[in-house]
Amino acid sequence: MRLSLFLRTNMEPILQEWEDFARSIQPAHRAMDVAELRDHAKEMLEEIADELAASEHDEDGQVIQSMPGMMRRARAAEIHAETRLTSGFNIEQLVSEYRALRASVLRLWSNRKKTATWFEVEDMARFNEAIDQSLAESVGRYSLMVNRSQDIFLGILGHDLRTPLQSLTMGAAYLMSLDSPDSNLIQLGARMYRSTSRMGHILNNLLDFTMSRVGGGLPLKIKQADLADISEQIADEFRFSHPNRTIKTDVRGQVEGIWDTARLGQVYQNLIANALQYGSENGTVYVLTTEVDEHVRIVVHNDGEPIPDAMKDSLFDPLFRHAKRETEEASRKNLGLGLYIVREIVLAHGGTIDVTSSKRLGTNFTVLIPKRHPLQDGAQAA
């Protein structure tokens, strides 16, 4: 008996062992019935049997029959992963089900009354391949569903925190503007404003990170923009929130173009914030915006410890943190999304971004973007 036929004729004992194992690992808060425990096991076994039968050969190497099963099996394995996720199974429990299924089938298959042996190795090898494929599809769908749920949660969290943060920012600005003889009160307002400003940057990056993962990219609303105005506006905001730091801007040539104004503001914002965070506290942050033929180059420079060469390749990866490991530096770490968002915005505008860093020349982040974005009708691009 070929393994494909064995699976069909021994379906019930195989499913019973699947059910017993699933009951032993079900979440403690659940009391699942037979249908829930077995879930899509029957469909997966039928589809695996179909796939095994699709290219079975006789002793002369001739195909016995051909039955398509791959597409149906893929759906069953993926749906099984979704239902297990909603039932509270973790990824380890999902994987263990396939391990138990493999062991159960191979044990029952090896204990059968044998009438021929020439095809056993081939059938077992192809069964293992089919189980591995089903497992890969289940794990892939499970991971996709988990990541999607996390992204939705992060998006909701970032959106809901904006309103109370805005109120705190307004209160901090009010304290800073008081005509009061109490300097401590004004200093408190300044510290609060810096903190809320930084929190706002982190939330914006978090929302953009979530959008880039869920929506397939950052949306753009392009229109005529002047980077001279944008760069100076963003620099002024940082001068206000960091009165003890020096930020100098320089604009050379015509730096007008068709871009998403708000997004390019984020480029300046994240690069300047990065320079202030990791640059020398006594050094100057330089922001240079220059016309280069039909492009505009943005360079943000800071002095301080150079970026190690080993870190440069991962610098723009999401959640990467470029910070010293000393304990006193821990408070300066953040989610590490700023440079990732910068890269996504630059790429969405058809541009490039690069970084150079050395002890002698400092650290320079260089952005080069064309003056005219391919989407020039002013419509929103998803």
Keywords:
disordered C terminus; alpha+beta; 382 residues; Heat Shock Protein 90; Globin-like; two-stranded antiparallel ribbon
- Enumerate the strands of the largest sheet in spatial order, edge to edge or round the barrel: 3-5-6-8-7
Structural class determined from secondary elements: alpha+beta
Q: Point out poorly predicted stretches.
A: 59-73, 322-335, 377-382
Helix content: 55-70%
**Major pleated sheet:** 5 strands, mixed
Q: What is the CA–CA distance across the termini?
A: 56 Å
Quick rundown:
By secondary structure, the protein is α+β, with helices and mostly antiparallel strands.
Task: Note down, in words, how this protein is organized.
57% of the residues lie in helices and 14% in strands. It is an alpha+beta fold. The chain has 2 domains: 3-149, Globins (Globin-like, Orthogonal Bundle); 220-381, Histidine kinase-like ATPase, C-terminal domain (Heat Shock Protein 90, 2-Layer Sandwich), CATH 3.30.565.10. The chain has a 5-stranded mixed sheet, covered by helices on one side. A two-stranded antiparallel sheet has the order 1-9. A two-stranded antiparallel sheet has the order 2-4. Helix 6 (91-110) runs antiparallel to helix 7.
